[in-house]
Amino acid sequence: MIIYTKDEIYRHIQLNHETIQVIDDAFTSLETKNVAMPPIMRVDVPEHNGEVDVKSAYVEGIEMFAIKVSSGFFNNYKLGLPSGNGLMMLINSVTGQPESLLLDNGYLTDIRTAAAGAVAANYLASENARTAGVIGAGSQARYQLKALKLMRDIEQVTVYGPTEKRVREFAEEMEKDLGMKVTIASSPEQVVTESDVVITTTPSKKPVIKAEWLHPGLHITAMGSDAEEKQELEAGILEKADLFVCDVREQSKRLGELHHASDSDAMFAKAVELGEITSGKRQGRTHDDQITVCDLTGTGVQDTAIAVHAYNILKNYKAGSSIGKRNQLTQLT
Amino acid sequence: MIIYTKDEIYRHIQLNHETIQVIDDAFTSLETKNVAMPPIMRVDVPEHNGEVDVKSAYVEGIEMFAIKVSSGFFNNYKLGLPSGNGLMMLINSVTGQPESLLLDNGYLTDIRTAAAGAVAANYLASENARTAGVIGAGSQARYQLKALKLMRDIEQVTVYGPTEKRVREFAEEMEKDLGMKVTIASSPEQVVTESDVVITTTPSKKPVIKAEWLHPGLHITAMGSDAEEKQELEAGILEKADLFVCDVREQSKRLGELHHASDSDAMFAKAVELGEITSGKRQGRTHDDQITVCDLTGTGVQDTAIAVHAYNILKNYKAGSSIGKRNQLTQLT
């Protein structure tokens, strides 16, 4: 059992074209390989406003697969702690033995989530997209914007968030990091109106984007909704879109934007999975004027893909704490 | 994040009256406290004849809870490796931070499973039970017998298993360990006929005990069935029993003996949960001539109970590998 700390993982694994391709391939594997991806396991801790999710996926032929534990404890700010925590465990596919523990504290989840946004943008945003809008100003908003920038020649960014200070910090930081103008919008409507690509990264329980704001050529990626009660897009948006894409149909219907569709069976039938597009079975955007929408709820196959990728990079560096000598692992783990 | 190896856990945690009480209390908590116990998450690895289960349960008011990963890879014997593997992770209930990793390799699962058998025997077997029968001769059969011995004055044991060599080894080892006669039976029927308490610990996919063998005063604990296709008891046994008990009704119906009942809705209504008995809401055995049956499928609340118990004992010893200094944990995990 080799253990890697967050510092080691942070030093060697970044959001870049390589990790985006890893996630692109992960979505493709959902179409081209046998994948065992059980529903998300969730443990609620209502006393402390907390929840723990467990995700996993085994992909046929892969040497290891991940079991990811991630938590959100939303009273942690009172203790001066971040709300999110998490780690990934890699299990040997042949023997079932635990091979490695990645104490990433949610960093690899941030990377694989942003990479999924990049994959969506790559197939669904117009090639000519130059303006990006972000609703929400947290850490995933930052990652998503950086991911989008890797896929399209974005020249201007508009951002909206409910907390002025957070939005101002976001704008300043992104202007510096990305070397481009970041405008603070006065409303979500302004963001949508002024952008070719819009990314929503909120924990909202009611729609933040209205169907009447959609315009030709727009692409929206909705990252936030990953629970029954969460919703970022007005239901009419799914119907109005020329192409509605999601990571996993069943999951979007249970936890994502599809859950709120006025005729969810009809939308379910109309929805395209991202893997169908990355694998070439279905087309993404076919002309500049289409309106495209992608709902990402987060999948175990992304976790397995990023964890195996990280492990393969990390094992080439002298790092990690080995619990017991390597040849005693069978005894120990 | 404090990590304990199997050797450390093995040295300090044993199957005894204390651990049995811990599991008794765990079942009671299912009745008396708010418990979030999601369905078992299962990842199948059919290529390698393997499966990984994830179990968890949060008990209101508890300081930590476990997420347990356990695997069974049934081609491992070809590699000279045990089929089972596993570890438990303890999550802080207030912050969601990972507190400890127990690299127990399935040992704590063995203990808590045997302890559940002891709890069942304590409430359901006749006080006058003197003969025990075991069907199956693996490691859980050994633990179960030791657990039963802690609860009843067993004087003679009968064992049946399909592989002569394994059964002979079992008998020799148990005679030595428990200091009593162990008879090798020629059939499961002989085991049932000659025993006051019978424990089945097989991975059987068809019944190993027939209803016609039941006799007044008998108690059966069926440990083996924990998947849709597994079954140890002929369906008629559930109906014929004066009292049918299971650990969790919904789980027994999905994965255990209730799954095979001829009228599973009626049996579901008739079934009593072990926690109803440990908590005093319902009675266990009320007279010596009753026939009682208990189906144990294994629950996350047992895992949380044994993991917290083990952690509390282990932290009092100078042991464990701390990943990072204690005050840097927020950064690291």
The third-level CATH topology of the largest domain in chain A is Rossmann fold
Strands of chain A, total number = 17
Q: In one word, what is the shape of chain A?
A: globular
Question: Which pair of chains forms the biggest interface, and how many residues does each contribute?
Answer: A-B, 57 and 56 residues
Oligomerization: homodimer
Order of helices and strands of chain A: EHHEEEEEEEHEHEHEHEEHEHHEHEHEH
InterPro entries (chains A, B): NAD(P)-bd_dom_sf, ODC_Mu_crystall, ODC_N
GO molecular function (chains A, B): oxidoreductase activity
Family (chains A, B): Belongs to the ornithine cyclodeaminase/mu-crystallin family.
Protein name (chains A, B): Cyclodeaminase
Descriptors for this entry?
alpha/beta, ODC_Mu_crystall (chains A, B), disordered C terminus, homodimer, NAD(P)-bd_dom_sf (chains A, B), 36% helix, 7-stranded mixed β-sheet, Rossmann fold, 2 domains, oxidoreductase activity (chains A, B)
Can you characterise this structure?
Two copies of one chain form a homodimer. With 333 residues, chain A is α/β, with parallel strands linked by helices. Chain A folds into two domains: 2-108 and 301-332, ornithine cyclodeaminase, domain 1 (2-Layer Sandwich); 123-298, NAD(P)-binding Rossmann-like Domain (Rossmann fold, 3-Layer(aba) Sandwich), CATH 3.40.50.720. Chain A contains twelve helices and 17 strands. Chain A has helices at 6-12, 17-32, 107-124, 139-151, 164-178, 188-193, 235-240, 249-255, 264-270, 274-278, 300-314, 329-332, and strands spanning 2-4, 35-36, 41-45, 50-56, 58-59, 64-73, 84-92, 98-102, 131-135, 156-160, 181-184, 197-200, 219-222, 243-246, 272-273, 292-295, 321-322. In chain A, helix 2 (17-32) packs across helix 3 (107-124) and helix 3 (107-124) crosses helix 11 (300-314). The radius of gyration of chain A is 20 Å and the shape is globular. The termini of chain A are close together. Chains A and B meet through strand 3, strand 4, strand 6, strand 7 and helix 12 of A and strand 3, strand 4, strand 6, strand 7 and helix 12 of B.
